[in-house]
Design brief:
259 residues; alpha/beta; three-stranded mixed β-sheet; 12 helices; 9 strands; 50% helix; binds 3-methylmercaptopropionate-CoA (MMPA-CoA)
């Protein structure tokens, strides 16, 4: 077994951080293995689940490796993380992060690059960079900030406070909280739902939404009109619309499945 495992369940890739003896600390070699798994997931799957083997999702940066770095090597390391995590966020398929135990420092940065986050009740979240005398370097000041806002991110970093999964949900860091041990199954279920969507719609959702959120209202609405028109013009959209009109496609369900 390598530092990152790869399995496939139907159209879903399951990518597992696999360095449990070091709490899935993100060493250079692990980041290289993650990059390879991301490429494989894109080639073979329609959606992916990212999870951690062992008792924690990830303890973040491998502090043992970091101690040895010069400032220039530190920049290169941070840029390498940006490159690899960016392949998740700006790739072709949606990623669902299944979180348990420590989701700390770089582990939280990695989770923030996924498109949807599911936590079980054992998950805890922190950015202890301030305590370690460093700063976030895996994209948290860009991605995690957009999930929770500058004030909460500043609080996390200044105080070193730890959030439980309920608080993380209230802050918008995760979208689902499930009982202990069920994050991976829930993420898989959600990924399967996404994998059944039209691939072009999924691509538009993960690529267009975050970009439109960064531009002005007028520019955003203009961009939206083009994305809407292009997705609707794809043959798969016509088939799906006709399927609904001929009563062959499911209706939108009420929450809980009632009528
Ligand atoms: C590690 C790391 C690591 C564990 N780098 N080796 N991240 C942190 O500041 C988090 C540091 N880790 C912890 O606070 C705890 O390890 C945990 C809460 C995550 C887990 O606790 P526990 O009791 O389950 O495990 P442990 O006994 O602390 O650790 C088991 C082993 O993993 C131990 O090594 P061993 O050789 O003594 O068995 C630990 O030293 C090792 N280990 N975490 C290296 N992070 C690009 S910017 C990103 C900046 C950051 O990510 S800063 C946050 C760093």
């Amino acid at each position: 077994m390598g530092l990152v495992t790869f399995e496939r369940e139907g159209a879903i890739a399951l990518v597992g951080l696999n360095r449990p003896d070091k709490r899935n600390a993100l060493s250079d070699a692990l980041i290289d293995a993650l990059e390879a798994a991301i490429a494989r997931a894109e080639a073979e799957a329609k959606a992916a689940v990212l999870f951690g083997h062992g008792p924690h999702f990830s303890a973040g940066l491998d502090l043992a490796e970091h101690v040895e770095r010069t400032p220039l090597e530190g920049v290169a390391n941070s840029r390498r993380w940006h490159e690899v995590f960016g392949r998740i966020q700006r790739g072709r398929i949606p990623w669902f992060a299944a979180l348990h135990g420590a989701v700390v420092g770089g582990g939280l940065e990695l989770a923030s690059a996924a498109h949807v986050r599911v936590a079980d009740r054992t998950a805890f979240f922190a950015l202890p960079e301030g305590q370690r005398g460093i700063f976030v370097g895996g994209g948290a000041s860009v991605r995690t900030v957009r999930l929770i806002g500058v004030a909460r991110m500043t609080d996390l970093m200044l105080t070193g406070r730890t959030l439980d999964s309920e608080k993380a949900e209230a802050w918008g860091l995760v979208s689902y909280v499930v009982p202990e041990g069920q994050a991976r199954a829930k993420a898989l279920e959600l990924a399967a739902q996404a994998a059944a969507n039209a691939p072009f719609s999924n691509y538009a959702i993960i690529q267009a939404l975050p970009r439109i959120a960064e531009v002005g209202i007028d520019e955003g609405l203009f961009m939206e009109s083009f994305v809407a028109s292009m997705t609707a013009a794809a043959p798969e959209a016509e088939e799906r619309l006709k399927a609904f009109l001929t009563k062959k496609a499911a209706k939108v369900a009420r929450p809980g499945g009632g009528r």
